[in-house]
Predict the structure.
Amino acid sequence: MKDLNLLIEKIVKFRDERDWDQFHNSKDLALALSIESSELLELFLWKNNEDFKLDRLKEELADVLMYALLLAHKHNLNITEIIQEKMDKNAEKYPVDKSKGNATKYNEL
């Protein structure tokens, strides 16, 4: 968690040094996250499953993660807590005995 907080501090410092916080409202951060996710997806378009350039994957994934962290930071969300809460919900929806090795959605298990 300490490393994650230091990383978030670095991202925020980078943003603040450029006076970009004025553009980072919740809507625009969510839009940027979606757009960067689309750029990540584009790496795989019309290719085989594992046919992509690793350097580009790293760049686009970093963009996605940075916008996600900025959005969480804006709302004072604890990344560890919100991920654990979601994993707990998923564990209820997808019990091991019904979902192991199975890609069926929880409401169809």
